[in-house]
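One such given next:
>
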Amino acid sequence: MSESVKVRLWMLVYTIIFGLLCVMFFYNNIENKYHVAYIAWSGIDFIIVLVGNLIYSLNRATPLIRKIWKGIFPVVVLDFIVGGVIDFNFGAHAHTMTLLGDVLTWIIGFALFFPSFRAHYLLGYKRQPTKPCTATE
């Protein structure tokens, strides 16, 4: 007996577009001449985010994946914050933007990442519906 899996098409489209943005973000890290360790870490993080987005969009979360994502979700959020701070302090535009420009950049960045944050949160922390017991079980 196979169950039909409900694919979240909007999330799949977002993941494809976000994947292209991640390539741009990764290239930006190289252009800013960040440390190799930071570039490698951000590349790994982008891959984790894309994998999580795909798992969520294809509705393929297993109990093991949910358990793993309870640890991955805080790492993804922390990496977003650390990446913003590093870019703010050491990026090509560091200290040349106004406070308004910095705030708008953070808001736009959060808006771009919000569907990913939501997907990763739901992967790790969404309560699963329990199957009701029947007399025949």
In short: The mean pLDDT is 85. The chain has four helices and no strands. The chain has one domain: 9-125. The helical segments are 9-31, 36-57, 63-90, 99-125.
